[in-house]
Design goal:
Helices cover 37% and strands 16% of the residues. The chain contains nine helices and ten strands. The strands form two sheets. A six-stranded mixed beta sheet has the order 1-2-10-7-8-9, sandwiched between helices.
Length: 313
């Protein structure tokens, strides 16, 4: 076991997450399946990487200065990560979220001192209309001139933050990855990992994922779903030409079953979007066969979902 040196702050504990090989869920005759455990980040989410990159990028450009307020609309993980970073750096943070997202995430933002606005959903579902209403509330907050909106769907610093996942994967695997798959929310993670893998000499096929009930990338239209953090109902700007090679849709019901199997059979405790990633990775591994490698990401911790029905239904 490698003993780490003392970090100057919790922000220096972001990144450097482990990769594990799945053992029991992979069918015989399949490729290896590797999962990068991003829930080892301080708030239990890969969004810590993005939040730190967006705040420090804004500071470097002079767009964010002491005394200003930071705002963002969020399903909760980005908000939790921004709340952590803002708490450490001394910025006020006013996130906009909704009751469609896990109460644990809303409570986490408040725990870090965020001034949270909750926008009501339609029956607890995630829709394009919900994102539109949340964005409208952020625009209202931005009327205050001492406000900085991180704008995660358009912020290029987000991609830079996520590139570290790809660089770490290249180092951890020696670049021996045949396919990388990941669900699309802002698409910052998929874009950043794709760029970093290719820059590191890894020519992995990049597969973008979404729920079958919201098939914007595969069929050209959105829909309702309950997979937090992905499928906003539009093609995110970060998903530019050349970022990915293929898009696939995964049944949300399969992902919800897989979340429980991951915990009980592999000890990987993660949320629905992570399980959706693994469902796709296992199918890709079966298609590729022995001697190949499929990699994906467990984006956040199952601890964020214990108040809902993911682990009880």
């Amino acid at each position: 076991m490698v003993v780490q040196s003392i970090a100057d702050s919790v922000l220096h504990a972001i990144g450097g997450t482990p990769v594990v090989r799945l053992r029991r869920l992979v069918e015989p005759g399949s490729a290896e399946v590797l999962v990068k455990l991003e829930y080892y980040n301080p708030t239990g989410s890969y969004k810590d990487r993005m939040a730190l990159a967006m705040i420090e990028g804004a500071e470097a450009r002079g767009a964010l200065r002491p005394g200003m307020r930071v705002v963002e609309f969020t399903g909760g993980s980005t908000g939790s990560s921004l709340a952590l970073v803002c708490a450490v750096k001394g910025y006020r943070f006013a996130p906009v979220s909704s009751d469609a997202f896990a109460k644990e995430k809303l409570d986490t933002m408040r725990a870090f001192g965020a001034d949270l606005t909750v926008v009501p959903s339609e029956g607890g579902t995630i829709t394009r209309g919900l994102f539109d209403r949340m964005r409208a509330e952020v625009m209202r907050l931005c009327e205050d001139p001492d406000t900085y909106w991180t704008d995660q769907f358009h912020n290029e610093d987000a991609i830079a933050g996520y590139m570290a996942i790809g660089r770490e994967l290249v180092e951890q695997t020696g670049g021996a990855i045949d396919v990388f798959c990941g669900a699309v929310g802002t698409a910052g993670m998929l874009s950043g990992v794709s760029k970093a893998l290719r820059a590191g000499g890894c020519q992995a096929r990049i597969v973008a994922l979404e729920p079958t009930s919201a098939p914007m990338l595969t069929e050209g239209h959105g829909g309702t779903h309950r997979v937090e953090g992905i499928a906003p109902g539009f093609v995110p700007p970060h998903l530019t030409a050349g970022v990915y090679d293929e898009a696939r849709a995964v049944d949300e019901r399969e992902a919800r079953v897989m979340a429980k199997r991951l915990a009980r059979e592999e000890g990987v405790f993660a949320g629905t979007s992570s399980a959706l990633n693994v469902v796709a990775a296992l199918k890709l591994a079966k298609e590729l066969g022995p001697g190949r490698v499929v990699a994906t990401v467990a984006v956040d911790s199952g601890l964020k979902y214990l108040g809902g029905d993911l682990y009880t239904a």
